[in-house]
Amino acid sequence: MVIAVVALTAPLGLLISSIAIAGYLGGVVDKALMRITDIFLAFPRLTPARCRLRHIMPLCVPSLIVHVTLDMSSIIITAASLGFLGMGAQPPSPECGTMIATTRRLLFSEWWVLLIPCIAIFLT
User: Fold this and answer.
1) Could you give the CA distance from residue 123 to residue 80 in angstroms, rounded to a whole number?
2) Residues 6+ positions from 14 with CB-CB distance below 8 Å
3) Which residues contact 91 (CB under 8 A, 6 or more apart)?
4) CB–CB of 106/113 below 8 Å?
5) Helices and strands in the chain, H and E counts
6) Is the peptide bond before 48 cis (omega within 30 degrees of 0)?
7) pLDDT, tens digit, for every residue of 36-80?
8) Closest CA to 98 of 8, 1, 5, 9
9) How far is C-alpha 36 from the chain's CA centre?
10) Rounded to whole angstroms, how far apart are CA atoms 32 and 11?
């Protein structure tokens, strides 16, 4: 689920937000975002993908790993919250938020049943 969220939201959010913010706010914000766009467009079209894969991509990978790693915890909490509210994965799918929601009636009698998915969320 984490991989799907990052793969879908990162490029789409970047595209939509920069265009929407530049068009809506205008002025200094528009100029700043257009300069950032100019930086991306300033790189010439490189002869085949070899140059991009061999020289540019290795420099981007460490930043990408850090960014995705920092986002994973909030994605896991969001997925568990949606599962708990019934808007995520549905039973019998093994999702921690759904497990907590379906066993919450056992909180006062068999509390350890709820503890296992909570520990799983905490550890991940």
Assistant:
1) 13
2) none
3) 98, 102
4) yes
5) 6, 0
6) no
7) 778 877 877 657 777 777 877 788 888 888 888 888 888 899 999
8) 1
9) 22
10) 19
SS3 of residue 46 by DSSP: coil
**Pair of tokens at residue 69:** 């790693």
What are the tokens at 36?
Answer: 């950032």
Query: Are the C-beta atoms of residues 82 and 76 closer than 8 Å to each other?
Result: no
Buried-exposed string 99-110: b where 16+ CB fall within 10 A, e elsewhere? bbbbbeeeeeee
Percent of the chain at pLDDT > 70 equals 90
What region, left, alpha or beta, does residue 45 occupy, with left being phi > 0 and alpha being psi -120 to 50 degrees?
A: beta
Handedness of CA 5, 43, 21, 24 (dihedral sign): negative
E strand map for 30-77: none
**Residue at 14: amino acid letter:** L
* 8 A C-beta contact, residue 84 and residue 40: no
